[in-house]
Write a structure and sequence with these properties.
two-stranded antiparallel ribbon; alpha/beta
């Protein structure tokens, strides 16, 4: 399976995701933001980091970069697209995903492992997980507070487009298990066709027991299979 990782000035998780993909035997290529064409890709990843230093607002400048036009075309044609952390923010800036990521409720940068629950395991991204499975995944962000309007929230629920929710180690979804104030503890969402996933947690950091755990592997292995 062929993958492409989009790299912006300020990306700092691009190599992490490349290592994770290559570990799972993806044939991966790194694509600089000034490119105007994409390699043939089954999966496009927009990685985490601080694209353009998060000036203006997170993902705003990256969302207007040259390569994004090709990403949008590929996404609209059905290519799988994964946006992680800053990548999620960029996807909302492009309109490929609805909603926005606001400042964390405590107005501080958060970097720690949290628990998230698999809400929908009926997609290409989540098919290797069990429904309601609890994962321990790292988060590292300043603007992870997902928000959308009530109409879109109703659609997310009705069409089963919520991918993950923050929870505690027992799977309880409540205010105390919400690290950033995200609306209804939402940690990740799909688009209507479910070929685009945006998520704040970093699954690429959880692919090796030596440095973390392997809770992120199933997301990538499910895609390659």
């Amino acid at each position: 399976m062929k993958s492409s990782v989009i790299v912006f000035p300020g990306s700092n998780c691009d190599r992490d995701i490349a290592v994770a993909l290559e570990k799972l035997q993806f044939k991966n290529k790194m694509v600089w933001h000034k490119e105007t064409s994409l390699p043939k890709s089954d999966l496009i990843v927009i990685p985490g980091g601080f694209s353009y230093g998060d000036y203006l607002r997170s993902g705003a400048i990256a969302g207007k970069s040259l390569i994004i036009d090709e990403v949008i075309k590929a996404a609209n044609s059905g290519c799988l697209v994964l946006g992680i952390c800053n990548g999620f923010q960029i996807l909302t800036e492009t309109g490929l995903l609805k909603g926005t990521l606001l400042r964390n409720k405590n107005l501080r940068f958060i970097n720690r492992d949290v628990n998230i629950k698999v809400i929908n395991n009926q997609t290409k991204f989540s098919s290797k997980y069990k429904s309601n499975q609890i994962l321990k995944i790292n988060i590292a962000h300043n603007e992870g507070n997902y928000f959308t309007n009530s109409k879109h929230l109703d659609q997310l629920k009705k069409d089963n487009l919520i991918a993950f929710k923050y929870c505690d180690e027992n799977g309880n979804i409540n205010e105390s298990s919400n690290p950033n104030g995200a609306l209804e503890n939402i940690a990740g969402i799909y688009n209507t066709k479910k070929n685009i996933l945006g998520m704040m947690p970093h699954p690429e950091r959880m692919v090796d027991d030596i440095i973390s755990n392997t809770d992120g592997i199933s997301l990538f292995s499910g895609l390659i299979n």
